[in-house]
C-alpha cells in the first residue's frame, strides 16, 4: 500500500476485537515511532504501552468515559518532555507538542498499514492519566489511542477540497 493509500484508508476505530497483536507487528509500529523526526533530533517523547485491564478501564474513564478504548488489547499513551526539546520553534514556542504529534501520527499510519485500528484520543484529564500511570510532573501527556484489530469499518467522512486549504504565494 502506498503512503497516500494508507492515509486515505485510515479511520477512527471505536470497536475492537480482543485478538492480541503479534510481536513482529508491534515492533514495526513502534519502529515507525522511533524513526519520527523531531526538532534538533531531540526525540522528546516516551510512549507508554498499557495492557493491564484495570489500567485500561481507568484510562478510558479518565478520557471522558470513552469505554470503547478498553476493548483494545493495548492503549498507547504519548508523553512529551517540555524541558528536553527544541525551545525556539518559530522563534516563539517549544517543539515538544509538534514532535510528539509527528511520532504519534507515525504510529497511527503504521498501525493502519498493519491492519490495526486507532482512535486519536484528545479528550482526557491529564492529571488523572498521569496519576494512573505514575507519569512525573515534568512530563506532559499529549494523546492516547487504543491499538488493536478493528471490529468495525467506519465510512469515509469527507475532507475539504484542495482549493479550500491550499493557497499559493501568500495566505
Helix content: 25-40%
Provide the β-strand percentage band: 5-15%
State Rg. Answer: 17 Å
Give the uncertain stretches in residue-range form. Answer: none
Q: Distance between termini? A: 34 Å
Q: Give the overall pLDDT as a whole number.
A: 97
CATH superfamily: NADH Oxidase
Approximate shape: globular
DSSP helix count? 6
Strand order of the largest sheet: 1-2-4-3
Going by CATH, the architecture would be 3-Layer(aba) Sandwich
Structural class category: alpha+beta
Q: Can you tell me the CATH topology? A: NADH Oxidase
Please outline the major beta sheet: 4 strands, antiparallel
Structural summary, described in words:
- This protein has 171 residues and is of the alpha+beta class.
- It has a single domain (3-151), classed as NADH Oxidase (3-Layer(aba) Sandwich).
- It has six helices and four strands; from the N terminus they run H-H-E-H-E-H-E-H-E-H.
- Strands 1-2-4-3 form a four-stranded antiparallel beta sheet, sandwiched between helices.
- It is globular and about 50 Å long.
